[in-house]
């Protein structure tokens, strides 16, 4: 085995039933053997406080509701046809998803039309997926119906909470074929062309087992506590699939309820023993910054088992800040689990194991950009700090030269390739791209491999994710990781909102729409070759003099030049909410760059000095 390679680790989980490759069979099992045990709880916040109103389905009730809705669906869709889920976070979403899988349809987990900034994306996905039916609930039915009509879409609309229980009275349908497509997972990125990964029934069961084993659920069954959207791959697997596979309790809250009062999430972590939860970098930083001492009172975080961080790359300082903020409430230091995954692999690929100190690495910035991971002192001004994402479970990882497809030795940076039973079937209706991404071949190893598009390396048997290939900023033949440049930029001036900025390159010849190449009246006309642009939101509530765009631009340019040896050609300072994010809350560099190029950021607040 190459020195750098992460080994294949057998999945030793003992999920019941062992031989099942569908969530439907697992749901039926728990309904039969543990009918009165709580399965899914939705924590709803009708007021502005921290106290939740909880509604719970036992495994028996979850099974009855799923079978009832599945029976209703069979009247509207044939096996293999698509069923889109357009309802808010909650029990109806869980039931609708499981019902679609149970009746042999292909679920399309989506969101309601009123999700801010994503109406166009929703319309694009519906046009791409062509659902025969749409599942919603009473609360969202009018909004969904109006949206479908406005876009000329005419699927059958089924309101799940109005389907009576007696529809479940018929015989139980056979479990679907494990190799058939269970659902389409659309990537959370905001792009003009929606892309769906086909996830089979066997894929999602395998990945749920892999994740549960990695996070210690075999030895200590957790309670899943989550606010991540159920239309997002990590939210769906950790809050729905994993609980069904292992018979665990899942407690779900709405993402907006978290954003309005993040202490609500920590209150749920405190209330439910052995909690396992997940969030991206920004959520941990957000909690550490805004949760007051008053809201911390009464929290008991000593029983938290696992906190997954699925950002790419994971910042160790985020875990440090979060732990420092809540150590007084008993939060153990060893619960942070940096993890790596992607929709093409269902979600989970590798993770740091709970109960172990965080594995952190300080790497030289220059050599990392050149493709090698060379450790340096954490105090070195040229150090890039990364948290390791551990090892895979039930999968095999290789670090590969993306051009030659040769496996690289330990410490060299290349593309992460993955092989395992959780790898999706491919992209819907995109044969050439499926073959390129899902059926890659290594020079000297058998089988098909998934090309992730992510860059990383292996040190001491640990996977370190360094960034996305497509996001690399390449100027004068040198590579720069955008998240590294963004970190320097946001620290350069207090007017920049943390984690609300995007750095990207504009290659020669790709000029913003409507720009005169001679550009006498546009300062950006001076940008002639490979250019670096930073679009950053300013902090809310700052008076205009404190966020002078020319002053901000000057500070950012000086800091990035000193630390990275990189010239920033333009810094745009824009109001809060102008830097687009994906539906999972991450900054979308792709869409920010597209908006820059089409002239959407032509506004007074820009630093072009």
Largest sheet strand order: 2-1-10-9-11-12-13-14-17
- Proportion of β residues? 15-25%
Note the gap between the termini: 54 Å
Which whole number gives the mean pLDDT? 90
Q: Which outline best applies?
A: globular
Poorly predicted sequence stretches spanning 5 or more consecutive residues: 7-15, 514-528, 604-609
Strand count, sense and barrel status of the largest sheet are:
9 strands, mixed
Helix content: 25-40%
The total of beta strands comes to: 27
Structural class: alpha/beta
The whole-angstrom Rg is 24 Å
Please explain how this structure is put together:
The chain has a 9-stranded mixed beta sheet, with helices on both faces. Strands 4-3-5-6 form a 4-stranded parallel beta sheet, sandwiched between helices. The chain has 609 residues and is α/β, with parallel strands linked by helices. The radius of gyration is 24 Å and the shape is globular. The C terminus is likely disordered. β9, α7 and β10 form a beta-alpha-beta unit. It has 17 helices and 27 strands. It starts with 22 loop residues before the first helix and ends in a 12-residue tail after the last helix. The protein is 29% helix and 23% strand.
């Amino acid at each position: 085995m190459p020195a750098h390679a992460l080994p294949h680790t057998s999945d030793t989980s003992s999920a019941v039933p062992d031989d099942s490759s569908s969530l439907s069979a697992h749901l039926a099992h728990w309904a039969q053997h543990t009918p009165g045990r709580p399965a899914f709880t939705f924590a709803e916040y009708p007021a502005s406080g921290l106290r939740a109103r909880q509604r719970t389905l036992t495994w028996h009730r979850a099974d009855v509701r799923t079978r009832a809705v599945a029976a209703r669906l069979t009247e509207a869709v044939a096996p293999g046809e698509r069923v889109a889920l357009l309802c808010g976070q909650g029990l109806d979403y869980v039931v609708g998803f499981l019902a679609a899988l149970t009746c042999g349809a292909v679920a399309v987990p989506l969101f309601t039309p009123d999700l801010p900034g994503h109406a166009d994306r929703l319309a694009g996905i519906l046009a791409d997926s062509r659902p025969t039916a749409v599942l919603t609930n009473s609360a969202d039915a009018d909004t969904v119906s109006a949206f479908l009509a406005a876009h000329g879409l005419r699927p059958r609309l089924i309101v799940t909470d109005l389907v009576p229980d007696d529809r479940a009275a018929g015989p139980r349908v056979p479990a679907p074929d494990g190799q058939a497509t269970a659902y389409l997972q659309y990537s959370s990125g905001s792009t003009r062309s929606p892309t769906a990964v086909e996830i089979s029934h066997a894929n999602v069961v395998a990945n749920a087992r892999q994740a549960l084993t990695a996070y210690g659920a075999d030895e200590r069954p957790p309670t899943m506590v989550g606010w991540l959207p159920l239309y997002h791959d990590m939210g769906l697997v950790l809050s729905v699939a994993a609980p069904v596979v292992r018979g665990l309790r899942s407690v779900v809250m709405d993402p907006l309820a978290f954003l309005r009062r993040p202490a609500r999430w920590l209150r749920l972590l405190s209330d439910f023993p052995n909690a396992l939860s997940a969030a991206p970098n920004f959520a941990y930083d957000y909690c550490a910054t805004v949760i007051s001492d008053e809201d911390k009172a009464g929290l008991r975080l000593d029983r938290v088992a696992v906190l997954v961080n699925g950002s790419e790359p994971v910042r160790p300082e985020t875990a440090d800040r979060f732990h420092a903020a809540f150590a007084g409430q008993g939060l153990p230091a060893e619960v942070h689990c940096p993890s790596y995954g992607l929709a093409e692999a269902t979600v989970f690929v590798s993770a740091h194991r709970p109960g172990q100190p965080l594995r952190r690495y300080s790497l030289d910035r220059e050599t990392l950009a050149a493709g090698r991971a060379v450790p340096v002192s954490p105090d070195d001004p040229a150090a890039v700090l990364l948290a390791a994402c551990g090892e895979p479970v039930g999968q095999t990882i290789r670090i590969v030269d993306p051009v030659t497809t040769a496996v690289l030795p330990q410490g060299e940076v290349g593309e992460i390739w993955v092989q395992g039973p959780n790898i999706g079937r491919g992209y819907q209706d995109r044969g050439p791209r499926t073959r390129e991404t899902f059926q890659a071949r290594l020079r000297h190893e058998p089988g098909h491999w998934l090309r992730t598009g992510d860059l990383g390396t292996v040190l001491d048997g640990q996977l370190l994710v360094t960034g996305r290939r497509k996001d690399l900023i390449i100027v004068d033949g040198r590579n720069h990781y955008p998240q590294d440049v963004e970190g320097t930029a946001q620290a350069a001036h207090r007017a920049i909102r943390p984690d609300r900025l995007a750095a990207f390159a504009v290659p020669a010849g790709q000029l913003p729409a409507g720009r005169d190449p001679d550009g006498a009246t546009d300062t950006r006309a001076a940008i002639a070759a490979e250019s670096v642009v930073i679009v950053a939101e300013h902090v809310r509530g700052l008076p205009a003099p404190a966020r002078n765009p020319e002053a901000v631009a000057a500070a950012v340019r000086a800091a990035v030049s000193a630390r990275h040896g990189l010239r920033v050609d333009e810094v745009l300072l824009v109001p809060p909410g102008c830097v687009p994010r994906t539906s999972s809350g991450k900054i979308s560099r792709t869409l920010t760059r597209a908006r820059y190029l089409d002239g959407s950021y032509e506004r007074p607040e820009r630093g072009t000095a």
